[in-house]
Design goal:
- The protein is α+β, with helices and mostly antiparallel strands.
- Helix 3 crosses helix 4 and helix 5 packs across helix 6.
- The protein folds into 3 domains: 87 residues, Nuclear Transport Factor 2, Chain: A (Roll), CATH 3.10.450; 152 residues, Nuclear Transport Factor 2, Chain: A (Roll); 119 residues, Glucose Permease (Domain IIA) (Distorted Sandwich).
- Strand 8 and strand 9 form a beta hairpin.
- Strands 11, 14, 15, 16, 17, 18, 19, 20, 21 and 22 form a 10-stranded antiparallel beta sheet that branches.
- It contains 8 helices and 23 strands.
Length: 418
Amino acid sequence: MSPRATRLLFGAVVAGLAIAALRLPTPKFGDPRVLFGDMAAPDLQPWTQHDTLGRGETLTGLLARRGLSNTEASNVVRATPLNPRRIPAGMPVELRGDTTDSRPQEIRFRLAVDRIMRVARSGDSWAATEEVLPWTVDTVLLRGTVREHLYQAIGEGSDSLLAGRARDELAWAIADIYEYKIDMSRELQQGDQVRALFERHIAPDGTMKIGTVIAAGLQRAGTEIQAYRMVQPDGRVRYYDERGRSLAATFLRAPLQFRRISSNFGRRRHPILGTMRAHQGMDYAANAGTPVRAIGDGTVIFAGTRGGYGNVVELRHINGMVTRYAHLRGFAKGIRRGARVSIGEEIAYVGSTGLSTAPHLHFEVLIGGVHRDPRRALATAEAGPALTGSAFAQFEAVRDGVSFALEQPAGIVRALGN
């Protein structure tokens, strides 16, 4: 090739490269191709920080503690509909981002086990959205044997079926169902059997809670009281035994919801006076401030202070029976002489007034002015009405639809009626 031809070919190659270069994007400052050619940028690495709201701490204070400026922390909180004064201590908070920026791109507030408030950053602004997490619902049959108390029976019977607070929730639900028939804190005996068919709700993080209790059975001394749930035409829920008789009665068996009784009816050494004297009632150990409820419909005949009883409420009921509630911290609104109260209504609060060494409720039953053992007096309370006609036919369909499940081994019941 002649020298002239060589020069023309070289010029063409250079020109072609120049044109190709014009078609490529110009590398920006900081582009890794400037130093490493076309080597790809390293993958971005996400990061997550976990924290909880401290007692007395504000959300803006927590976010500032996590590196946000006071202005940006305030902007995050203002972007949410949250009331900072009503957020409980211990609420989990999660900050998320990646290695491109030390500032978080998203902040998550765990409002409840099934509710998350997400606050995402776009430039210098923040926007909040609330997410409701789905629960998984199944039907479970639990069986338990009482050796000490209902909590123990439920705890051992649930094994892997329930966890955490859900066990207590089921015990409370069962106690509520049978509260007209038995005082779970006193009258259960070793060897009694309990079974319950209920809905179990499981959150994505494994948290469990108790849903509807569909049916239950409580066997004492070889005799079982069954309970079947029915929704009334007015929307109210009631439980009936296997014969369609309401488990509700004229009186509740205890003035507190499922609490431990600290002293039984009979004779005991008085904790302050130190002498043996008739203890004319039952003592229920409970925290100060625990609501006290009327065990039946009645009229307030006394509400005030009376000697060693301290603050006391007395109710006269429709059959002439009088119930007395003593050592109270205070009275519920509207509780005064002549006031009418309904069964289960809150009338006062547990305290330690009068001759009392610790917070508890002293409860008495008087018939014809004579003290009676509350357990025996309330055990004879009139039962609730039985279902008849079309209502009983509807009950039979409900009972027959779930009774087979009560006979199954403990565990998950896949499909009722199949």
